[in-house]
Design goal:
The protein has about 400 residues and is an alpha+beta fold. The chain contains 11 helices and 8 strands. The strands form 2 sheets. A 4-stranded mixed beta sheet has the order 1-4-5-8.
Length: about 400
């Protein structure tokens, strides 16, 4: 079947709307019909929510659906599934895995989380110590993961674990899909500076994962994980936003509506950050265009760096602009939210929550190394543990 062009996608979208009117169709039923019509992510293969069309044509579908007030799949709530799990399953999953996981993931029936970081393996992720030992047709997993967003609401997790301690750290890792409802999976909340427990730590004790839920060959989990990590950084730093979307929106709105708060110094800083936010937005659009040609590259690390720095500087400016009001904090209730809502909360929340932007999705220090070595081509840092078996490393 020939991939449709823009006119063809417009026609297919209107046919979907005619057959399933958003005003009278159950939200989940509409999303399932959209997926089955290939209009979920048009660049995915036919039968897996797409039509093998260019990624650049997705906005054609989105604009038609938005004009008809059709429901979306609440991408903020299922961002880990959409931005990290789905590209990895598509790239390394078996046909059975793709058929099983992609539809409920995109529709939002199943939430995903990411079991990567550990207390002793954050920035140096390849040093992870969670073990997976083969037992017949299963793998038995023991270990601890940390900083796991959405673990308290997730059904599935993408998990990397050490399957061979006798080889260097990058070569002894395998990649699995873990059922978060299985016996031996314990999720504990981690209360943050915001007062909430959006993150969790996860303890895995004798968790049995069938070999049929392994992604990629045994021992090549680090290669598979790179697909996840590069897509993660693009999804965080290169998300599609309108002009004055994201963090710059609330502070720009306050500036216009509260002239009594203005000073010359704050004006100059706001202008500078507004321009930088717009440059980042346009650069993100260009990065998404590059994705049409294939997998994301290390450039996503640069976008994620810019995202973290801008969020922190903009939220700091907003608190200063508000003066005494900026010291107020609306709600310190301990709760376990399903998503991060930057723009729907107050300035104090934005200021505190943005501190995590330079840690989550790869610390800024690690991303600076990636940009230096893989984008700019600068000499790599010396690594003395490259050829040492993991079991012989100092810990």
């Amino acid at each position: 079947m020939t991939a449709p062009d823009a006119a063809g996608l417009r026609r297919l979208t209107r046919e979907l709307l005619a057959a399933h009117p958003p005003a009278t169709t159950d939200r989940t039923d509409f999303l399932k019909a959209r997926f089955d019509a290939g209009l979920a992510w048009v660049h995915y293969p036919a039968g897996l929510g797409g039509l093998d069309a260019p990624r650049s044509l997705q906005p054609v579908v989105d604009e038609e659906l938005a004009a008809a007030d059709a429901p979306d799949n609440d991408p903020r709530r299922i961002g880990i599934g959409l931005g990290m799990a789905a590209p990895t399953v598509l790239g390394y999953g078996t046909d059975e895995q793709k058929q099983r996981f992609l539809r409920p993931l995109w529709v939002g029936e199943e939430v995903w989380c990411q079991l990567f970081s550990e207390p002793g393996a954050g920035s140096d992720l390849a040093a992870l110590g969670t073990r997976a030992v083969r037992d017949g047709e299963d793998w038995v997993v023991d270990g601890q993961k940390v900083w796991t967003s959405s673990a308290h609401v997730a059904r599935w997790a993408i998990l990397i674990a050490r399957t061979d301690p006798d080889v260097p750290k990058h070569r002894g890792i395998s990649y699995f899909i873990c059922d978060m409802t299985d016996p031996g999976v314990e999720v504990r909340p981690l209360r943050q500076i915001t007062g909430e427990a959006e993150f969790n730590e996860v303890f895995l004790t004798g968790v049995r994962i069938p070999d049929s839920r392994r992604l990629g060959p045994v021992g090549e989990g680090w290669k598979v994980a790179q697909t996840t990590l590069m897509n993660e950084r693009v999804s965080i730093g290169g998300a599609r936003v309108p002009r004055e979307g994201g963090m710059i929106g609330p502070v720009a709105r306050t500036w216009r509506e509260r002239p009594e708060l203005r000073t010359h110094d704050l004006h100059q800083r706001l202008l500078t950050l507004w321009v930088e936010a717009e440059v980042a937005r346009l650069t993100g659009a260009r990065l998404r265009q590059q994705l049409v040609a294939g997998q994301p590259g290390p450039e996503g690390s640069g976008m994620k760096l810019a995202f973290a720095r801008l969020n922190q500087e903009i939220s700091g400016l907003e608190v200063e602009l508000l003066g005494d009001e900026g010291l107020l904090y609306g709600d310190w209730t301990m709760r376990r939210p399903e998503l991060v809502d930057f723009t729907g909360r107050d300035a104090g929340y934005r200021y505190l929550r943005s501190k995590g932007n330079s840690i989550e999705g790869g610390t800024s220090e690690v991303l600076l190394n990636i940009v230096a070595e893989r984008v700019l081509g600068l000499p790599v840092e010396p690594r003395n543990d490259k050829d040492v078996a993991w079991k012989d490393l100092s810990r």
